[in-house]
């Protein structure tokens, strides 16, 4: 498999975590979105949506959207599973994952921040305040949802799931922007546990071959 991705992209990071949790080998193909490489014809041929990540399967199919990629990985390589077996628990894990992927991340990805600066002429301080505000609001909601679930090492029990794959990259990027994590006790305890897990360590941006690009 080949993973076309950008080291700082939280969506890319999610997929790298899933691949590492499942012990799957892949070729790392860097796409530097900050330099516009996702808009070059070569990558547009791989991803018409011009988004990262894209996973090329062993048989040559090209899959986009991190959540769809991770669920495909879970269905085709079911061990270890990234979703619990019970329907209710599966829905709860998906809901946590979507709080990050659908509520926080879309407001703070690179193209939104660039639009704020270049088109709406928002200053750097205001842009960063925007980022920190929406990360904080989203993670407060995440914390409240976690508080309703039985406490475990990770978001759902003592095994990493799709929710952890989504949470960790968002915390990483929030740290870069100086987001406020005060009062997020359960959330940050999960993050700390994840960052003691070899799969999360290996998938983090500083471990990527293009992290200094």
Q: TL;DR?
A:
The chain is α+β, with helices and mostly antiparallel strands and 213 residues long.
Structure, described:
The protein has helices at 10-21, 41-46, 66-76, 87-108, 110-118, 124-147, 162-176, 185-194, 198-203; strands spanning 2-5, 27-30, 54-56, 62-64. The mean pLDDT is 96. Helix content is 54%, strand content 7%. It has 9 helices and 4 strands. It has a 4-stranded mixed sheet, covered by helices on one side. The two termini are 23 Å apart. The chain has 2 domains: 2-80 and 201-207, 3-Layer(aba) Sandwich (Glutaredoxin), CATH 3.40.30; 87-197, Glutathione S-transferase Yfyf (Class Pi), Chain A, domain 2, CATH 1.20.1050.10. The protein is an alpha+beta fold and 213 residues long. The relative contact order is 0.16.
Structural class category: alpha+beta
How many helices does DSSP assign? 9
Biggest pleated-sheet summary: 4 strands, mixed
Q: Tell me the overall shape.
A: globular
The low-confidence parts are none
Count of separate structural domains? 2
CATH architecture of the largest domain: Up-down Bundle
Q: What do we call the CATH topology of the largest domain?
A: Glutathione S-transferase Yfyf (Class Pi), Chain A, domain 2
- Strands of the widest sheet, in order across it, are 2-1-3-4
Straight-line distance between termini: 23 Å
């Amino acid at each position: 498999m080949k993973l076309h991705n950008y080291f700082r992209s939280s969506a890319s990071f999610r997929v790298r975590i899933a691949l590492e949790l499942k012990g799957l080998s892949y070729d790392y193909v860097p796409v530097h979105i900050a330099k516009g490489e996702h808009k070059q014809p070569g990558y547009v041929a791989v991803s018409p949506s011009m988004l990262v990540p894209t996973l090329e399967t062993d048989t040559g199919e090209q899959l986009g959207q991190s959540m769809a990629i991770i669920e495909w990985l879970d269905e085709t390589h079911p061990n270890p599973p990234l979703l619990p077996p019970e329907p209710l628990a599966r829905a709860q894990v998906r809901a946590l994952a979507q709080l990050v992927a659908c509520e926080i991340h879309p407001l703070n990805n690179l193209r939104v921040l660039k639009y704020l600066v270049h088109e709406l002429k928002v200053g750097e301080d205001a842009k960063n305040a925007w980022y920190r505000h929406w990360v904080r609001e989203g993670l407060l909601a995440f914390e409240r949802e976690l508080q309703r679930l039985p406490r475990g090492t990770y978001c759902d029990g003592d095994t990493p799931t799709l929710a952890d794959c989504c949470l960790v990259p968002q915390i990483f990027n929030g740290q870069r922007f100086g987001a406020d994590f005060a009062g997020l006790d359960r959330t940050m305890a999960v993050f700390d546990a994840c960052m003691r897990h070899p799969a999360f360590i290996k998938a983090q941006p500083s471990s990527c071959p293009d992290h200094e690009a």
